[in-house]
Amino acid sequence: MRPVSYPVTVFYDASSVAFTSKVDALKGLAHEGRLRFVDCSAADFDETVLAGMGITRADLMARIHARDAHGRWYTGLAAMEAAHRALY
What we know:
3 helices
């Protein structure tokens, strides 16, 4: 498992009940600023954060993603694991 640099930004689809319930649970835990949350379904979502990454907004909408402070991307289970590691 590679080291994760904090803060970790979690990109999620707030229009999805499944994603939102997981993210709301994380938001409610003490993460002391090591987690940030971005709703990629929002009309004002800034897609420039994806420039040159090979990741699209559609990718973010289909599967949860996270990016650490060094710009490393995590998807699916690895994204959730990186976020959960911020709690400890």
